[in-house]
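C-alpha cells in:
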C-alpha cells in the first residue's frame, strides 16, 4: 500500500472511517495512507491528517489576501483577520460578509466582505495585507512599522484564581476533537473568569485560530474581551499577543513558551501573560496581580 490519499479507494475509505469512529469532520481532517516505521516493524496504516486549504479574502469583490487555513468558521476568520489588521474597526463597519462561488478548483474557498464605510476601501491600506501562511501571522508585511504598530493599553479587567487556570487545559483537550484525531490543529478558546468555556475554534495556524475567536466575538458584538480569558494551545509569539491586545484581552494563557518580544509587548500594554500552562504548573510573565495565588 503506497502512502497517499485514500479517497479513491473504497476499501481504504471504509477502513479509515471505521478507525475514525464515523465522527470525523471532513472539513478538519482527512484520511491518508502512510507507512509507520518503528525500530522493529514497518507497517501500512491509515492516518488522519489536518486539512489545510487556501482561503481567498475579498473586499467589495477585490482580492486582497490569501490565508492558508483549516476550513470552518471562515467568515469569523476573515472578520477577525481584517479586524486584527486594522481594516475593520467594529461590527458596524461590516455591511455584509458571505462566502461566494470560486472560479478555482476549491469551491467555497472565497469570502467577500463589504464594508459599511466605502472609505475603508482604500487600496493604500491593502498593502499591509499579503499572503498569510498557517505558520506565521505577520509574514510578508512590507515594513517594520506595520509589524510594530501601536496596540491599546489594557485597563481594568477580571481577576482569576490559579485553580481556574489549571482547569483550562483539560477543558480544551476534551473539546478539541479534531486534534485528538490528527494531532495537527491548534485551538484558541475563550473562558469566563470562572473557567467556563464560551467558544473554541481550531486551525492548523495558531494565529488563524485566534483570528477565528476574535471574528466570532466581533460578529457577536462581544468586543472588547476584557472579561474573558483567552487560552491558546501554542507558544506566545508577538503576533498572538498583538491580536489578543487589539481585541481587549487582558489575560492570555498559552500552553507552550513565550518569545522575548511577546513578553515585552504584554508588559507594555498591561496584559497578563501566562505560559507553560500544564497540569499543576504555569509561569506568569507580566501583570501577576490578576492571578490569585493560594499558596
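Residues out:
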Amino acid at each position: 500500500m503506497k502512502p497517499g490519499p485514500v479517497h479513491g479507494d473504497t476499501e481504504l475509505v471504509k477502513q479509515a472511517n471505521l478507525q475514525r469512529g464515523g465522527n470525523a469532520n471532513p472539513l478538519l481532517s482527512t484520511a491518508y495512507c502512510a507507512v509507520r516505521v518503528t525500530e522493529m516493524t514497518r507497517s501500512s496504516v491509515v492516518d488522519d491528517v489536518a486539512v489545510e486549504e487556501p482561503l481567498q479574502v475579498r473586499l467589495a469583490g477585490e482580492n486582497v489576501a490569501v490565508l492558508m487555513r483549516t476550513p470552518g468558521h471562515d467568515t469569523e476568520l476573515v472578520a477577525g483577520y481584517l479586524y486584527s489588521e486594522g481594516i475593520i474597526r467594529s461590527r458596524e463597519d461590516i455591511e455584509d460578509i458571505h462566502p461566494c462561488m470560486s472560479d478555482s478548483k476549491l469551491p467555497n474557498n472565497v469570502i467577500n466582505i463589504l464594508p459599511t464605510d466605502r472609505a475603508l476601501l482604500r487600496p493604500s491600506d491593502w498593502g499591509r495585507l499579503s499572503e498569510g501562511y498557517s505558520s506565521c501571522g505577520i509574514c510578508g508585511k512590507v515594513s517594520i512599522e506595520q509589524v510594530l504598530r501601536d496596540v491599546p493599553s489594557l485597563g481594568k479587567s477580571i481577576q482569576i484564581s490559579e485553580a481556574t487556570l489549571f482547569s483550562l487545559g483539560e477543558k480544551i483537550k476534551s473539546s478539541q476533537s479534531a486534534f485528538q484525531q490528527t494531532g495537527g490543529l491548534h485551538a484558541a478558546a475563550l473562558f469566563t473568569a470562572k473557567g467556563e468555556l464560551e467558544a473554541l475554534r481550531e486551525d492548523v495556524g495558531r494565529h488563524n485560530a485566534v483570528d477565528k475567536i476574535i471574528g466570532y466575538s466581533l460578529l457577536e458584538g462581544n468586543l472588547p474581551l476584557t472579561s474573558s480569558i483567552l487560552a491558546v494551545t501554542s507558544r506566545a509569539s508577538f503576533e498572538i499577543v498583538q491580536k489578543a491586545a487589539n481585541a481587549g484581552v487582558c489575560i492570555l494563557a498559552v500552553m507552550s513558551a513565550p518569545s522575548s518580544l511577546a513578553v515585552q509587548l504584554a508588559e507594555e500594554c498591561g496584559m497578563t501573560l501566562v505560559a507553560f500552562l500544564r497540569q499543576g504548573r504555569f509561569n506568569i510573565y507580566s501583570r501577576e496581580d490578576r492571578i490569585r495565588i493560594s499558596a
